[in-house]
Amino acid sequence: MEFAFKKSSALVNKKFAELFFSTILATASIYLGNVINGIIVGNLIDPLAMASIYACIPLNQASNSLALLISLGAAGMIAVAAGARENDKADYIYSIVLTLGLICAFFIVLLAPFNAEISKILSTEEELQGYIEIYLSIFIYRTALMVCIIVFRNLLRVEGLAKIISRSAVIQQVLSFVLTIIFVGYIPLGIYGAGVALIISDIVCFTYMLISYGFFKERKRRFINIFRYGLKKLFEQIILICKTGFPGFIALILATLKVWTIYQVLGELSDASSIVMYSICIACISVLGVLVGACCDSSMPIIGMLFGEKDFLGVRQMLKQVLKVALLLVIFFVAFIFVSPQKILNIYNVPASALESGAEALRLFVPSLIGVAFFVVIINYYSVIKQRKAATLASVVEGFLIILPAVFIMSKIFGVNGVWLSFGVTEIISFIILIIYVKKFCGADIFLIPKKNTEILYDVSIKATTENSVKVSAESIKVLKNNSIEHISALKVGVALEEMILNIEKVAAGKTVNVDIRIGVTHEKNLLILLRDNGKIFNPVTYQPEEDFATNGIILLKALAKKIEYNRILGLNQTVIEI
User: CA-based diameter of the chain, in Å?
Assistant: First the structure.
């Protein structure tokens, strides 16, 4: 039959946009702290000092990978559990992740006495090692603190606390920029001052997040005793958390190894100028990390929620939206660099004699960022929907398996330019391998989930208005009767649905509210109404009706329903009514 209402992604797209703009600030604080430091140091000291800061990026990536191992996949698990209304499980995972974050930070701090040895591992160039050793004396403590910040932000994001994340990120970035200029340019502390600026800004940022979250009365998650179910259950859950986060973790670890290896290849192949150019390419990847990382970090909890609800159509719509936003942002970024590479080089104070070769290097390198963006989104997506084999394959192939042979072979043929070309070749080959795997071994499309939930009979999206409540009620009754549902049961669903929409509209007090509605059949042949809306908190289970038409309907709703469940996830109301 022809529906008056259609399924749309308006509600989740609004939530995605809300989280995206806060997340892009938070992601910038992870990826751009070193980049901004490098730019300032490169101009106030020299390009070699900048290259020394970027040579420490593998250490930063390795520590970030630990944070993502324990929190990124876990954030999806918490969202899936909350979406399935398993709040005790969500709290258990939340508590384990916080504990693991502190343990990881502690072990990173233990590396501090070995900064001289680490500097030699990070670079074979003696010109850089002195700078690196000085910078590491403070930067190691900064990496430990960033693990705690990344973990905590991923947990805040699952609760939809976008404002706390964005404000903390603004504080962090502004302080970092101002203090770097002060400590490098005015005091001056040299490259050590750049590290001091970062760690002070991180301490203030983390303190703000802890205080803000502590005073947030509506927070959903709570810290519980992680030993409450015994050691066996704890270790099983930790292993599951690590398995879920493993594809993202291995992607960053392999990226770290890739960066380090290519630094060594360039050290053997050319002089320090090529290392400076590669450092600028790494900075471009860091900007990419901000753009695409924000898309992933803000969308994956939503995808986790939808997947937990078995809203497969909603998952597909959300992934399409994320890919569209991420790829458009990266294409504009790539086009800008391709047309005006000199502007990027001038930011880093590259000498005039190296501008021509530097521009050529950037033009050969940046098209590969489009492929990188695609794979970052897909790897995160597969991790959330529990397709860990596909996620791990994509991580290994794109992050390591193809790039290193390509670098060695193409550098032999084309020299230094072969290094830059190998990045684009890697993305093309990796994409072909992924498509072959999905088609041949999974027998599915790239989404790796069903196209729809066969238990769902009616799946639409509306705005909460009195007029729409009547229309969607009548339409749902027709749909159910056309699917051989008894008239009385279909009528109960229609009445319950109408009363819920009326009350959502009333509580919203004039604000526009988007509502996603799904009606399905349980295994016990009961009818299930699943509602998701972005209105004010409205729990029909505990709601105390007033003496008027709209709210008296809640009494009627409770009389009609066999069971009503309510949950608040990502700042959205989730209501399940069984008739």
Answer: 83
299, 316 contact by CB (below 8 A):
no
List Cα–Cα distances, 406 to 268, 398, 443, in angstroms: 16, 12, 30
- Could you read off the pLDDT of 190-216 as tens digits, one per residue? 888 888 988 999 999 999 999 998 887
| Nearest Cα to Cα of residue 384 among 444, 308, 323, 476 | 308
Amino acid at 494: G
Token pair listed for 428: 């093309």
CA distance 573 to 118: 49
- List CB contacts of 235: < 8 A, sequence separation 6 or more: none
Looking at the whole model, is its pTM more than 0.85? no
Reduced to 3 states (helix: H, G, I; strand: E, B; else coil), residue 92 is helix
Helices (H) and strands (E) in the chain, counts: 20, 5
* Closest to 222 measured CA to CA, from 90, 339, 345, 118: 90
Percent of the chain with pLDDT over 70: 92
Asked whether residue 551 carries a pLDDT value surpassing 60, the answer given is no
Cα–Cα distance measured from residue 553 to residue 573, given in angstroms and rounded to the nearest whole number: 18
Residue 448, φ and ψ in degrees, nearest 5: 60, 30
Distance CA 439, CA 209 (A): 44
Q: How far apart are CA 294 and CA 24, in angstroms?
A: 5
Which residue do the tokens 């920029």 mark?
A: 177
Q: What is the CA radius of gyration of the chain?
A: 26
CA atoms within 13 A on the CB side of 164: 23
The tokens describing 451, both together, are: 């196209």
> Which residues pair with residue 575 across a beta bridge?
531, 566
Q: Are 80 and 253 in contact (CB under 8 A)?
A: no
CA distances from 99 to 87, 152, 280, 318, 425 (A): 19, 11, 36, 31, 41
Per-residue pLDDT at 126: 74
Query: Among 457, 464, 475, which Cα is nearest to 499's?
Result: 464
Measured from the Cβ of residue 130, the count of other Cβ atoms closer than 10 Å reads 13
CB 529 within 8 A of CB 477: no
The length of the chain, given as a count of residues? 579
Q: Where is average pLDDT lowest: 416-420, 452-456, 551-555? A: 551-555
Helix (H) or strand (E) holding 304: helix 272-308
Distance, CA of 87 to CA of 568 (rounded, Å) = 10
Cβ–Cβ < 8 Å for 120, 347: no
Task: List beta partners, residue 577.
Answer: 529, 564
Q: Tokens standing for 412?
A: 């032999």
Give the integer Cα–Cα distance in Å for 489 and 495. Answer: 10
Distance, CA of 564 to chain centre: 32
Which residue type is seen at 414?
F
Beta bridge partners of 572: 569
Query: What is the C-alpha to C-alpha distance for residues 176 and 333, in angstroms, rounded to an integer?
Result: 24
